[in-house]
Amino acid sequence: MGANTSASIGDILKHPEVQKVTDNINQEVIERREYKPPVCKVFSSSYTMLEDKPQFEFYVDNEARRRLPGIIDNKVQTIVELQTPEETFKEQFNKKRKIGIVFSGGPAPGGHNVIAGLYDAAQKANPETIIYGFLLGPDGIIEGEAVEITGSLVDRFRNLGGFTMIKTGRAKIDTKEKMELSKKTCKRLGLDALVIVGGDDSNTNAAFLAQEMLADGVQVIGVPKTIDGDIQVRDNNRKVLCAMSFGFHTAARAFSIEIGNLCTDSSSDIKYWHICKVMGRVASHLALETALQTHANITLIGEDLADYVDKERVEKAAAEGVINYHAYGMTLRHLSRVICDGIVRRAAVGKNYGVIVIPEGVLEFINEIQNFIIKLNTIISEYNQTHDTDFHTDFSLLEEKLEYLRRLAGRSQEDNSFTIWNMRDHELFNDIPAFFQEGLLMERDSHGNFQFSQVETDKVVLGMVRDYLNILKENGTYKIGIERDYYRKTLDKGGLDPDFLGPILFQNYDDAQFLLMKSSIMSVKTLKQALVKAGAIAETEKVPAPVEKIFHKSVPKFKTQPHFYGYDGRGNDPTRFDCMYTYNLGLTVFSLIANGATGQMAAIRNLEKDFSQWQPIGIPIAPLMHLEERKGKLTLVLEKSIVDIDSAAFKVVKAFREKWLAAVPGEDNYRRPGPIRFTGKSEEDRPITLVLNALDS
């Protein structure tokens, strides 16, 4: 375009189409903001009340009873409609209130809708009610930094992901000083209630705040948030009260979409194993849901590994009249063998590619790793005490630390009473990649604990897998199967007789669709030796080019692409399920506040069922708490929920492992989760995990 006809950049930027496509707000955001989640039937009534449900009982920790006396006897409360309330009830329900809300911990999709539900319910009851959002997490409460939440602010973030409206933070109100500052903030703002949206630690914080603020008349309500899905509540009779924390469904779907794309890529390019590490340090819920969503070839579930029993070892020990404690729990070595077995079997049918899903915290379920951590903590601590020095200063290099451990192992052979580090420990430790050895021997934190978060889980597992695959490759076990028709065409094209050479080259030539090169043929040199020995060529002749081509195709290359799925999923816009769930959680929060509850966690029962059966409830937080070791001391905390290996969801994944591995000729069994479609009939209405686990209820 010439100078006389070209438009200036100013004119281009003013063009309506340019402004439309470069605007921050696109059609998807507009539609999300306009979406109105359906509400549970009980909330169609102008008034709700709480009914205690004493049939739901919990084991109460004595320490929880001692420290939380004011809320420890709270009951599960169901929210029910109240059609004809008395005037005094109406006045109390509809009174003007000041309510504070805070996000605590990492973001989870749907948080904004908790605020939207709370705001809408509060405004419906009394338009003069004020909602304050504390900025940057609990620090906002401690420091008194808050913003008034208005209708226009809420409307900007309806059905959108993130915690952008008021941000979040990881501070804890865990000292007397912080508690006093928090109480002063609540008093200065004149708060009637405080809502804490967070995970297990945050809801633990909510319980202590509820206890401390009883005298001030400030109600405290918790809301279960974590993409890890490890806040699940059952009573003593295993009745499900909270099946899943919000944000889990969206994160699992976001991860599954990406991993599903890798399944498609893997089966298209057929040369990579994609190693997908997904969030979930303590529990493997996300890995389990991802397996159901994608049918990845191999999915590790940490809780399953912890439950592993080596039956051969058990039987051998029983025959000898002893107990082999090493037979219980998966070792790293065995885990690497299990993964390698799947890789080798797929390669044998021409599939030297695939997708592996690994939960972030899988190593925490490996017994030997936990044993190593305990033993090394003891060794380092005793060394420091005995020598009045620092282990890491005296042994600054990994080689020096390993040599010290070797000497300890040697001592165990000379002194039977010395059991802290024996030869088996040393042998297993030497199997671990050097960088992980160094990680296990790193300096402990200020409380003497191992810093697990610094370990590259996938790198540890892959290092051992790669090492063992090299061994299998060297002994001729790891081979790529050659499709029979391809072999015949290649040799026919080169003027060679495939039926004459087949039995010489392959171990399964008679009846297999995919031909496996004999284990003795591991190089061009051994290939030639086999041909010469069979009389196919003379010693002076070269290996025929078509035969050499087939050989090279049978030699596997283990190529990997690592991926980590975490922050991208927690920042995703929520699924319709999470939009509905969180909006109704917000409505539940207001109902609990309006009815005078404190120390309760807002929840929706029957999430695993159709929306028409969802039941808003309040769950007492204090009875859920127990003593757990944190930072070297026993601390009262809300217990995390791990994957139940007796659940229907896990049993289904276990039953389909062989099918999804697809170590047979033919297509893979990958499932395409598809994108998160906020609208449309194809969007699933709840996590698959919940659908399956509902079969047990």
UniProtKB/TrEMBL annotation:
Keyword entries, A-Z: Cytoplasm, Glycolysis, Kinase, Magnesium, Metal-binding, Transferase
Pfam families for this protein: PFK (PF00365)
Gene Ontology terms, MF aspect: 6-phosphofructokinase activity; diphosphate-fructose-6-phosphate 1-phosphotransferase activity; metal ion binding
Cofactor(s) named in the record: Mg(2+)
Reaction catalysed by this enzyme: beta-D-fructose 6-phosphate + diphosphate = beta-D-fructose 1,6-bisphosphate + phosphate + H(+)
Superkingdom to which the source organism belongs: Bacteria
Gene3D superfamilies given in the database record: 3.40.50.450, Phosphofructokinase domain
GO biological process: fructose 6-phosphate metabolic process; response to glucose
InterPro entries reported in the protein's UniProt record: ATP_PFK, Phosphofructokinase_dom, PKF_sf
SUPFAM superfamilies: Phosphofructokinase
A GO CC term attached to the entry: cytosol
Start and end residues of each Phosphofructokinase domain: 98-307
Family, as annotated: Belongs to the phosphofructokinase type A (PFKA) family.
PANTHER family recorded: PYROPHOSPHATE--FRUCTOSE 6-PHOSPHATE 1-PHOSPHOTRANSFERASE, PYROPHOSPHATE--FRUCTOSE 6-PHOSPHATE 1-PHOSPHOTRANSFERASE SUBUNIT BETA 2
The protein's role, per its UniProt record: Catalyzes the phosphorylation of D-fructose 6-phosphate, the first committing step of glycolysis. Uses inorganic phosphate (PPi) as phosphoryl donor instead of ATP like common ATP-dependent phosphofructokinases (ATP-PFKs), which renders the reaction reversible, and can thus function both in glycolysis and gluconeogenesis. Consistently, PPi-PFK can replace the enzymes of both the forward (ATP-PFK) and reverse (fructose-bisphosphatase (FBPase)) reactions.
Protein name in the entry: 6-phosphofructokinase
